[in-house]
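Q: I'm writing up a methods section and want to include an example of the input and output format. Could you take the sequence below and give the corresponding predicted structure tokens, formatted cleanly so I can copy it straight into the document?
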Amino acid sequence: MATSTKYPSILMFGCPGSGKGTQGMVVGQLPNLVHLAMGDIFRGLDKESDIGKEFLSYSSKGQLVPDELTIRVFRHHVDALIEAGKIDLSYHMLILDGIPRTTQQVELLADVIDVKSVIHLMIDDKDALIARLSKRAKTSGRPDDADVKVIENRIEVYERETHPVLEAYPKKIIARVNADQPPLAVLRDIANCLVGVVSARI
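A: Here is the clean output for your methods example:
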């Protein structure tokens, strides 16, 4: 790492289609917050590079990228932003979307991120999730969401491998938000959860 200081972080947590990316981008517009979506970081990789091809070999099947590869790419990306002066750890807090996604990643990141809050976006309607992801494939250039079977696999992988991540953090820092509301209502609830966490750093 470029510094021995942990990255102060807020986790945007929820199943595929719950709105993590949308809400994270909006909240990340605040002056002292930086939204980092692991999926965007991966998709920003050169697809012709070895690491880019390795990523596609997993994402195209709806599988999670191996933990070691994920953490390596994440740390390199954040440290590059720090070196470029785009992130100041004494001022900025990271809004993390899509990482950590497994309990192993939680362990690998224990000395890397300092989790201040976990925003758990909850939605129980599986059909609504599939509809959201199918629409995203058409409007956002997400080929990994174009196949219903891949979408269903992504949801199953989330339930099996990602949902248990919640157990790794103290319940007192986990805020549950109903994601099955209009986007502005979800944003309002997220903002209410973060007032104390973020204002302390301004």
